[in-house]
Fold:
Amino acid sequence: MSSHGFPRTRRRVGLVAGAVALMVTAGMMVAGNAQAAAGCQVAYAVPSQWQGGFTADVKVTNLGDAVNGWSLSWAFPSGQRVTQAWNATVTSSGDQVTAKNVSYNAAIGTNASVSFGFNGSWTGSNTAPASFALNGVTCTGSVGGTPSPTPTVTPSPTPTTSPSTSPSPSPGGDAAATVAAMQPGWNVGNTLDAIPDETAWGNPLITQAMLHEVRAQGYNSIRIPITWSNHHGPAPTYTIDPVWLSRVQQVVDWSLAEGLYVMINLHHDSWQWINGYPGDRTNVMNRYTALWTQIATRFRDHSSKLVFENINEPQFTGTSGDAQSDEVLRELHVAFVRLVRQSGGNNATRLLVLPTLNTNSNQAQLDALAATIAQLNDRNIAATVHFYGWWPFSVNIAGGTRYDTNVEQDMVDGFDRVRNTFAARGVPVIVGEWGLLSYDYTRPGIIERGELLKFFEAVGYQARIRKFTTMLWDAGSFLNRNTLQWRDPGLLALMKTSVTTRSATASSDQVYVRRTGTITSRTLTLNLNGASFQGLRQGSTNLVNGTDYTVSGTTLTLTSSALTRLVGNRAPGVNATIEARFSQGVPWQISIISYDPPTQAAATGTTASFTIPTQFRGDQLATMEARYADGSAAGPANWTTYKEFWSTFQPDYAANTILLKPEFFAEVNDGPVILTFHLWSGTQITYRLTKSGGTVTGSVG
Structure:
């Protein structure tokens, strides 16, 4: 995962989300001068579609003279909109869309291709664009302007770097035992993988004390993401900076000395230069093999507790789609395994970890990696995928505020695919990164804590029963590396427990009580997860069954008398915290909160800076909806009325405001917009905006 890696991961989740696909091919003319022959072909595919959203892949093949700098334009026939893109810069004006090259894919040689993709939204229908234009010239399907039959998009045979016969099985080693011993694992993210150096993304240098703390908390392995692209010399040798290599070895050696298994890799190299492999095979393969040859040589005599992962989240430009990307990834996998095994020493039997394309759990990508592993016939290989959960919940969009059946089914389905493809066939599995995309201590409130706890508890259980090893992605949100204190000790305790035992949870970890009026009893539903309820406690004091609470099956009822005592003077906010205790696992904390319905006030501002005065009065914001007067969705991601928390709106409880961000207004039409704020107490507030150019006014109700 990158420090700002959400768009790529969103694409991965989108591909999992649906199975509707269509393919459109079109020939097209390329703008050129009188001396230049011009023409090209476009393949537009929708490999995944779901309610209100879809993923599109676009491949442009240049049939004429080479171009350097391209701009592809089209019109959506059904009102679709692009919500995010990769490998191109996409802008829209109504139905008109323009995709322009980024720095690394501006040049398209004769008969060469470039690919990009995007996530989009739709309502009603999702009809493919009828035509395209490249650099301002409408497609005609031939060089020089004479239409020709639409070429096929089947990729030409891809050169292979594998040996003509499958390598013999490597001797020794027990991959399954090694992977099992690595559970649980932890990522020291955004550090040695940071660009250009270790502290560039805000984390301190890795220390022995930090590694000791990680080991002391029960972690058995550490993944050390490493970006090498800024730390080696030019072709043809690509010599790694000896100071950098020594620093990597120092951290590896410290980790091994703590008793940790260690996994190292090529990390952000995946999108910095490895992704160009389809169009630059010789140079990329030379660089790739040069780096891994040096790394393998440096560490060939290290303990077998050191593990090599060849590429983080592999992705490619210039292919016809995932099928061809899977094939070029196979070439890199085979080259990696061959050169490591040939480097001698402990590398002959060292565990090697191979990822799927984008480390996703789509069945096609799982099958492609399984075929590669079968071809390699090497018993010391593990498969790896990444898991960041159901996207709407992981980023809090489309009303995804709770750990619900959608979130759980996404997890179960993905984990089952991985188990059935690999673990059930004897290939051990490492979930090399996992977490929730928007869980970040610098952006509190995106994921409500109780809902987050349920997700983390479930991941621990679902991975354990399938015998996966999981490695938590931590870029600083879990362990404060400056103080070596865990930011949420309760979450840490739950994760530690989940390695061996389930913990019970409840329908909520919050009970809201109005500050005025009669206090009545409240109920919560217990999710026992195999445990039995044993009682409630406040601090060291046990609450009394029958007086303070009752339990009937899985329904826990807090009595009015107990709540009256717990809210005390009914000051806004959390007045008390109690714990539900069970026969196994960690207790479930429940906050007793006093509140009055929040109030808002009129405001004026600009699309660059607009804040709504909001007296929260003990309540907290769960999500926000935005609609036009006709009820249709307003703002970004217009396939849903529920906007993405923090990226488009952000509460500030200390300042008593809600900020609407420029990113929200960038996709809002002039005129009235109706906002609905959903609070965790169940309260809903309506607020009305009027946008006129760069000016915004707001009023209550």
